[in-house]
Write a structure and sequence with these properties.
- This protein has 472 residues and is an alpha+beta fold.
- The protein has 3 domains: 177 residues, no CATH class; 191 residues, Nucleotidyltransferase, domain 5 (2-Layer Sandwich); 41 residues, no CATH class.
- A 7-stranded antiparallel sheet has the order 2-6-7-1-5-4-3.
- Helix 1 crosses helix 3 and helix 2 crosses helix 3.
- 25% of the residues are buried.
- The C terminus is likely disordered.
Length: 472
């Protein structure tokens, strides 16, 4: 279940506007009274509601009072200042008038939804109209013109409505609970996503962890455009990224990045400037929201050393840029696959604690501590050499022998083929013994049988040579 909020505006004609403002003021005062009853008088539960009713039942109905009590029920701070501390300081400094302060302090009206009361008992959305219940007269409703963007379609079976009066305008927030979209059936594999300041790298990984498809969704405008254009571009990026995962029927894998204020002073000047403009949080939020809406499963993984491993292992062999290579590592990490250490690690010659990592076309330098952390982030040791030590120069595999062994009674020739002339002659003798099959020959086929045996002799005696058709 997810909570959805639609933002809009409402307009009331002048006689009704004044009455709505009075209703806002009455409920805001009731909320402050409920806060005092809880934190000053120590009342709890239904006693708080009874305390508020004594003073506000004449101007509010029971449902408005219950909503006022629920507004402040979760507040535990003893020093709450309704209206905002900053607005209070501005009024004391003469930057804000008392009327403006009162407007902020009393400019809110709230009504909880109820499925048994037509969606909401006090404030109802009916098409492009907003109806507000007036408790001064039974069955009286005040009508206003409502505007909510067409992309929002509130569920009108049960919804909450909150009014805010700011700068002479009524702002409306309609919230409701949206059931989760059924998860799409997926196949083995994943779609790795690497967010960057200028776009998103998307890589599709097969079930065995290999690269299948990659693309880079680039949006240069998000680095310098205004807020509205930037938000639009980010949402369009999310639509394309989630659409790719939905088409592939595979879960999305994203990073848990951290550009918190505590790390803001780390790094060089260009990187700090990039972080200041990097709206990765909006990207990830948009992708997660879109994935939830489309029913695409989403997995978050540790982002450490994804770019380093991508450069060392995948960038050069697959002709990928560093962002796409990192997305490949992210996708594999989301499948819980370990990265084999197929790069070399050498100690720095100066005697420092730095280690040099050299992979397929790229090099990186890490400290001992960073390399230890890299090993704990899904790196497995290099596969053991199953062929044993390298054979001596001029040596090669013999007949019926394993690599690196020389059978007893054989010597090594300079041509790289094992066995001296006598041993070779013995092998030939054993082979030619098979040629004594004249009783099985048919007329006209003797040369063909001879050629077959000669080929077999060459393959057995010289296994490293390759012969093409017609070679004798």
């Amino acid at each position: 279940m997810s909570r959805q909020i639609a933002h809009g505006t409402v307009w009331f004609p002048e006689p009704i506007k004044t009455r709505v403002l009075d209703l806002m003021k009455a409920q805001s005062s009731a909320a402050r009274a409920a806060y005092q009853a809880t934190h000053k008088h120590g009342l709890r539960g239904n006693a708080v509601k009874q305390y508020v009713k004594r003073n506000f039942m004449a101007s509010l109905n029971q449902r408005y009072i219950s909503d006022a009590v629920s507004r402040v029920a979760a507040i535990e701070d003893e020093g709450v200042l309704f209206g905002g501390k900053q607005a209070w300081e501005d009024m004391r400094a003469g930057k804000l008038s008392k009327a403006e302060w009162q407007e902020r302090r009393n400019g809110q009206l709230y009504s909880r939804g109820d499925r048994t009361k037509g969606g909401n008992p006090n404030i109802r959305v009916v098409g492009d109209k907003l109806l507000v219940n007036d408790p001064s007269s039974r069955g009286r409703w005040m009508e206003g013109r409502l505007f909510i963007p067409g992309k929002w379609k509130p569920r009108l079976d049960c919804y909450d409505v909150r009014f805010l009066y700011r700068d002479g305008k009524f702002e409306v927030k309609v919230s409701w609970t949206e059931p989760d979209t059924p998860k799409l059936p997926t196949v083995e594999g994943a779609v790795g996503v690497d967010c960057n300041p200028d776009g998103v790298a998307v890589v599709e990984v097969t079930g065995d962890g290999n690269l299948k498809h990659h693309q880079y969704e680039q949006e240069q405008r998000i680095q310098f455009a205004g807020r509205g254009k930037r938000d639009y571009d980010i949402k369009q990026l999310a639509v394309r990224v989630v659409g790719a995962a939905k088409e592939a029927r595979k879960p999305l894998v994203v990073e848990k990045l951290n550009f918190s204020s505590g790390n803001r002073q780390k790094g060089y000047r260009k990187f700090r400037r990039t972080k200041a403009n990097f709206i990765y949080g909006q990207m990830l939020t948009a992708i997660k929201s879109r994935a939830t809406k489309e029913g695409v499963p989403l997995v978050e993984v540790q982002p450490a050393f994804t770019s380093v491993l991508g450069n060392l292992k995948y960038a050069k062999p697959y002709s990928l840029n560093r962002h796409t290579a990192a997305a490949l590592v992210i996708g594999r990490r989301g499948m819980r696959l370990l990265e084999r250490q197929d790069f070399t690690v050498t100690q720095d010659e100066s005697g420092s604690e730095k280690l040099h990592l050299e992979g397929k076309g790229f090099k990186h330098t890490l400290t001992q501590k960073a390399y230890s952390f890299l090993q704990s982030c899904g790196l497995k040791e290099k596969k053991a050499d199953l062929t044993g030590p390298a054979p001596a120069p001029g040596s090669g595999p013999g007949i019926g022998a394993s690599v690196g062994e020389i059978p007893t009674g054989e010597s090594t020739g300079t041509t790289g083929h094992r066995g001296n002339a006598d041993s070779i002659q013995e092998k030939k003798g054993s082979l030619w013994a098979w040629r004594d099959f004249s009783k099985f020959r048919k007329p006209g086929n003797s040369s063909c049988c001879d050629n077959v045996l000669i080929r077999l002799h060459k393959y057995i005696l010289y296994p490293r040579r390759r012969y093409i058709h017609g070679d004798t």
